[in-house]
Amino acid sequence: MPGMSPGRKRLLVVVKSVLALLLIGFVAWRFAGYLQSPELEYRTAFRVQYLIPAGLLYLLCHTLWGTFWWQLLRGQGVPVSWYAGVRAYFVSQIGKYAPGKAWVLMLRIGLLRSEQTRPTVIIVTGLYETLTNMAAGAMLGVALLPWSGLADQLSELQRYGLFGLALLPLALLGLNRLVRRVATKYRGPDAPPIPVPSLGLLARGLVQATVGWALLGLSLWLTACGLSAELPPLTGEAYLQYLSGVCLAYVVGFVVLISPAGLGAREWVLQAVLARQLNGAEGLAAAIAFGLRVVWTLFEILCMLGLWFIAPLSSGGERGANNEVNP
After folding, report:
1. 174 CB contacts (<8 Å, ≥6 apart)?
2. Which residues pair with 324 in a beta bridge?
3. Counting Cβ atoms within 10 Å, is residue 166 exposed (0-12), middle (13-18) or buried (19+)?
4. Fewest C-beta in 10 Å: which of 7, 95, 141, 189?
């Protein structure tokens, strides 16, 4: 943080790390109790034929979200191919496993340094991409609260918080436009423009993000099929329950900044939603929530490793792709 002494910065990192460990430790302790429930001996199974498509749907969702970030970059005139943009998006996801969630943007800056892209553009577009995706999830989570079973447990302040998160992209757009107008009066004529995405591009991002969330809802159902002894049916109401759970859990995990990749916070909310859907079977709900984390993390790591070791497109190839594609 600007103006903060190195000693205070180190202290802040230590405090965040300790809080993150306490949160993860508490949730792990509770989950250990759930996973020792006698009911799991006859209520769980392992069907890899369902878990593989669950992981692939997770990657497909993030491909849509990564494509939106690429569209934001292209909207700011950054000459980067779709492959290079989505590759940087996936590889940078390793940064979310560090407390604070800022490492993702730092990694993207490093991964696109050969594109001669201004760090400000990468940071601002990254923030818009993340907040737009979370906004779509927050809006779905709020709309589907009656299906989650948590509606009666949320305070008015928590509900307003979800609505506020859903409106953040529009708030940031208005703020950026105000800053651009003010900065125009004082900056020099050769100063680079402040990145501001259009409303149309943000609307497109919300649609893509919503499709991604719909895929995550299916991924959760497939994970439940892969780990439950009795296959859960996919009715319309059941799908809305899965979708509400994954939206609320993911968004809460994002808001809890001290939690790397939402670890602990996401599982806590998802287990609470699934337990109500499974008629109080808390052990099975915990197993599905934990299994979903394992499946998503495994597929994400395999994807990151694959893209990291696959050589990026050559400069000439990227220029050719850039000339062909224009979002």
Report:
1. none
2. none
3. buried
4. 189
pLDDT of 7 strictly over 90: no
CA dihedral 234, 212, 265, 276 (to 10 degrees): -20
User: What digits encode the pLDDT tens for the residues 148-175?
Assistant: 887 776 677 677 777 777 777 777 677 6
pLDDT of 321 reads: 42
Encoded tokens for 316: 């000439």
Q: What is the average per-residue pLDDT within 121-140?
A: 90
Copy the structure tokens of residue 71: 């569209």
Q: What is the pLDDT of residue 294?
A: 92
Closest Cα to residue 173, out of 140, 212, 206, 208? 206
Q: How many CB atoms lie within 10 A of CB 318?
A: 20
Query: Whose CA is closest to 129, among 178, 93, 80, 83?
Result: 93
Tens digit of each residue's pLDDT (9 = 90 or more) over 166-203: 777 777 677 667 766 766 666 666 666 677 788 889 88
Q: How many CB atoms lie within 10 A of CB 313?
A: 16
Q: What is the mean pLDDT of the chain?
A: 81
For 291, other C-beta atoms within 10 Å of its C-beta total: 20
Q: Is the dihedral of CA 285, 286, 289, 292 positive or negative?
A: negative
**CA 225, chain centre distance (Å):** 23
Q: How many residues does the chain have?
A: 327
Distance CA 123, CA 106 (A): 8
Question: In this structure, what token pair is assigned to residue 51?
Answer: 């878990």
H runs (alpha helix) in the chain: 6-35, 40-43, 48-75, 82-92, 103-111, 119-143, 145-148, 156-166, 168-186, 199-227, 236-255, 265-277, 282-309, 315-324
Three-class secondary structure of residue 44 per DSSP:
strand
Q: What is the band of 319 on the pLDDT scale with cuts at 50, 70, 90? A: very low
